[in-house]
Each structure stands twice: as C-alpha cells, then as structure tokens.
C-alpha cells in the first residue's frame, strides 16, 4: 500500500487542553480516508495541521515522505468547515475568481459537471440552498485539480437527500484517483464512503482500520429485536438478551439457532427484525456513549 500522508505522534495543546493528543496514522494513496468523532474530538485541529494551516505543538506530518512545506498548497484542495464566500458574486463569478488564484486549474466545464452546478451558475452565491452551497464549496476545493482533497464535515446540516447527492459527488471524485480526506460525525456517511477510518474521541485515537474489518473484529454477531411484551420473561435472562427501549434485543452469532428457539417457545415473529452492527454501534461500544450525545 502506497501512503500519501503520514501523521506521527501529533500533539496540539491549547493551555491545559490537549486538543490532539499523540495521534498517529497513515493515509493510503487513493480512496477515501475518514476521520470520525463527536464534537470537539480534535478532527478539525488534526486536519488543519495536515493542511499546513496551523502548526502542531509536537509531532510530524509527512506528505509523500517529506515534511509539509508551502508546495503542498498546489497539490491539495480544502473545503473548510466554515467558509465565507465573497459577497455579490454569482456562482460562475466565484469559480472564475478562485481559478485566478492558481496557475493550473481544472477546466471549468468539467468542474461544473463534476459538482453538478449547472442549474444555479448565475445565482448570487449568498442565495444558494445548503446543499448547493456545499457543492460550490466542493468545486472550489477541486479548482486546482488537487491530488488530495480535504473535506471537513461537508454534509453537516444537510437534509438526507442533499447528503446522498453529495455522497455521489464524493464517489465521483474518488473514481478520479484523488485521495479524499473527510471528517464527519455521521457514521452512515463513513460506511458509505470511507475505505479506512480513524475514530477519535477527546483528542485520542480510539480505533482505526477498514470499516468492514472493524465491525467484524468488534461484532461477530447480529442483533434481533422483538416487542418486549411478546417474549416470556424467563427467556430474557439468557446471555446476550436484554431489554432496550421497550424492545428485547438479542445479540447472537447464530440467527438460525435463535429463531428456532423463538419458534419452539411460540414467540410471535411477525414484528421481529434483524440488524447487523454498524459504525454507530461500534462507537457506542468503544466509548460507552453514542456519537450524537
Ligand atoms: N484555537 C483554539 N483555542 C483553544 N481551544 C481550541 C482551539 N481550537 C480548537 N480548540 C478546542 O480543541 C478541541 C478540538 O476541537 P476541534 O475543532 O478539532 O474538534 P472537532 O472534532 O473538529 O469538532 P466538531 O465536530 O465540533 O467540528 C475542542 O475542545 C475545541 O474547543
Ligand atoms: Mg470540526
């Protein structure tokens, strides 16, 4: 595996607070790398050090094996968590303005197609909807045809449909052999997009790896749910069975065997549903609290 960025023992301290506390990981070239964690986990701080925007208190970031220097600005694109757009410019004028900052740029038509901007090119950029604005910001991050694109919570605050549309754009970018580095606190987003994830909480890495392998490692089982009133009390005392939000939650690595038992005990199965563990469950397991608390 060829790596594009290596982060080694990164620390960022603000007075008493270690916003990033000894974080190390390697980002493979190509594909989508996800930095996950709740508010204040240290995601933005970590990627802003990687982008060369802020300096670390200690530790190193290597870009293609070299210390980050000013040349990185030409090879990366950044979509910040909060960005102010220039007032009184249309979307097209905004693209023109940003293109003028770089020597090498992606052809504008290609950018418009890639980020699906054609229907609002002449609109004042302040009047865009949330999803349209994020698409414009993505286009600005791609304007210099970067090898690496940093996206800091690009879908936070978008409605589900706008999020799905945005995911498709990110998949398009991935298919162009660019490396996408994404922060998010949406686990479903990470499952959809990321080939490798680092999960942070309170400035530290609590787990990292390929999402599927992490789920296999932590959950060799699936969950079965049934309405609490339909299951006899004595069954619930078994290992892996518990009451959760008015439902019986059964954690099992053998669905057939569990369902056979339920049939034998004449438990009605019409309201039964089966769910495999997802990254939200993983986060809950690792930290003891859910990501959105
Ligand atoms: N300039 C600063 N001065 C002091 N504390 C800071 C500064 N920047 C960040 N912090 C603190 O560092 C911690 C990590 O912040 P960071 O912005 O990296 O979190 P995050 O994971 O990006 O969170 P979010 O999901 O809310 O964007 C937070 O507790 C934050 O308050
Ligand atoms: Mg942030």
TrEMBL record:
Query: Is Translocase included in the keywords of this UniProt record?
Result: yes
Q: Which InterPro entries match?
A: AAA+_ATPase (IPR003593), ABC_transporter-like_ATP-bd (IPR003439), ABC_transporter-like_CS (IPR017871), ABC_transporter_ATP-binding (IPR050763), P-loop_NTPase (IPR027417)
Gene Ontology MF term list: ATP binding; ATP hydrolysis activity
A GO term from the CC aspect: plasma membrane
This chain belongs to which protein, by name? Answer: ABC transporter ATP-binding protein
ATP-binding keyword on record: yes
Question: What family does the Swiss-Prot or TrEMBL record give for this protein?
Answer: Belongs to the ABC transporter superfamily.
Domain ABC transporter: start-end pairs = 5-227
Under SUPFAM superfamilies, the record lists:
P-loop containing nucleoside triphosphate hydrolases
| Keywords, ordered alphabetically | ATP-binding, Cell membrane, Membrane, Nodulation, Nucleotide-binding, Translocase, Transport
Give its localization: Cell membrane
């Amino acid at each position: 595996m060829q790596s594009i960025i290596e982060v080694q023992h990164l620390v960022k301290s603000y007075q008493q607070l270690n916003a990033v506390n000894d974080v190390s990981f390697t980002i493979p070239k190509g594909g989508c790398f996800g930095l996950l964690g709740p508010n204040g986990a240290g995601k933005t701080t970590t990627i802003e050090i990687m982008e060369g925007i802020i300096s670390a208190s200690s530790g190193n970031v290597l870009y293609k094996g070299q210390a980050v220097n000013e040349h990185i600005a030409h090879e990366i694109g950044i979509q910040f968590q909060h960005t102010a757009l220039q007032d009184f410019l249309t979307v097209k004028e905004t693209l023109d303005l940003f293109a003028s900052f770089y020597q090498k740029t992606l052809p504008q038509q290609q950018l418009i197609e890639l980020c699906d901007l054609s229907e609002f090119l002449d609109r004042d950029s302040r009047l865009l909807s949330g999803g349209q604005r994020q698409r414009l910001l993505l286009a600005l991050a791609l304007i210099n045809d970067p090898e690496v694109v940093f996206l800091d919570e690009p879908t936070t605050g978008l409605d589900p449909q706008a999020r799905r549309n945005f995911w498709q754009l990110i998949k398009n970018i991935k298919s162009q052999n660019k490396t996408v580095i994404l922060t998010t606190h949406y686990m479903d987003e990470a499952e959809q997009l990321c080939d490798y994830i680092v999960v942070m909480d309170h400035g530290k890495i609590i787990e990292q790896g390929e999402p599927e392998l992490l789920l296999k490692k932590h959950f060799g089982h699936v969950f079965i749910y049934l309405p609490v009133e339909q299951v006899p009390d004595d069954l619930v005392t078994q290992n892996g069975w518990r009451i959760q939000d008015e439902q019986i939650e059964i954690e099992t690595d053998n669905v057939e065997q569990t369902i056979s038992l339920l049939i034998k005990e004449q438990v009605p199965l019409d309201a039964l549903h089966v769910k495999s563990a997802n990254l939200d469950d993983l986060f809950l397991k690792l930290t003891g609290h859910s990501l959105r608390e």
